[in-house]
Specification:
Layout (H helix, E strand, L loop, with lengths): L6 H5 L1 H4 L4 H16 L6 H7 L7 H6 L2 H30 L4 H13 L8 H12 L6 H4 L6 H9 L4 H6 L2 H18 L7 H16 L4 H16 L7
Helix pairs in contact: 3-4, 3-6, 3-8, 6-7, 7-10, 7-12, 7-13, 8-12, 12-13
Length: 236
């Protein structure tokens, strides 16, 4: 309390409200981004949902939509990264080459957000939307220092070169993983997510381990040859 404040002013809801304005806006954005899509909700809707009458509150705290989305992701990504880093360290310490363990390192830290009552389920839906767009916004989810980078390196050592360098199997696994988590997150909460999560690890493992068929390898070779010679693909 300052010399100019009375005790009532120092503890009144009006005086406390600005301290939590940023958090209230983030929570409102989580809910609406998850329900309507990141681009499907106006900033005015978010301000109304947060109970903000100050027209400049959102701009003051976040600048614009991109800054607000960044704040939502930054609220959750550190915990996911920390969990994944622990699992990757355990994998490296084990000295084994176990693809399922690496699939688990992708799935489990994100799946833990299913049990986070402070926007975790909404976060999963938002990430899935960003990764599964026609033009994925990967850079918003995989930021500098992300645990995805060491995960990719460790997975790459277990896959054939064409799976990682050309066919982008790791990214397909990420998209699938988050699409499934988002579907689960959008549904009513279950008492136990362990069976779902274990099966999702199975499926991500299978996706990563999927062999490159003779037909796919042939088509890949034909594409590379056309690229080298400048030939156009035949009309279909």
């Amino acid at each position: 309390m300052t010399a100019q404040e009375t005790p009532d002013q120092a503890t009144s809801p009006r005086s406390q409200r600005p301290r939590d304005t940023r958090g209230t806006l983030i929570r409102a954005a989580e809910r609406l981004f998850a329900a309507k899509g990141v681009d499907g909700v106006s900033l005015s809707e978010i301000k109304r949902a947060a109970g903000q009458r100050n027209a400049m509150a959102l701009q003051y705290h976040f600048g614009d939509r991109a800054g607000l989305l960044r704040a939502v992701l930054d609220k959750h990504l550190p915990a996911v990264d920390a969990g994944r880093e622990v699992l990757l360290q355990q994998y490296e310490d084990s000295g084994s080459a176990d693809l399922r363990s690496l699939a688990g390192a992708l799935v489990l830290p994100a799946a833990a957000k299913l049990g986070d009552p402070d926007g975790g389920r909404e976060f999963l839906q938002i990430v899935a939307e960003l990764l599964n767009r026609p033009e994925p916004l990967v850079e918003l989810v995989v930021t500098e220092g992300s645990s995805i980078y060491p995960w990719r390196r460790l997975v790459e050592a277990l896959l054939p070169p064409e799976s990682t360098m050309v066919l982008h199997t790791r990214f397909t696994a990420m998209r699938f993983c988050h699409a499934e988590l988002a579907t689960r997150a959008a549904a009513r909460p279950r008492r136990d997510d362990r069976l779902f999560t274990s099966r999702l690890v199975d499926l991500v493992t299978a996706l990563l381990a999927a062999p490159v068929s003779e037909q796919t390898a042939r088509l890949l070779h034909e594409r590379d040859r056309r690229d080298q010679t400048g030939q156009k693909a035949p009309a279909r």
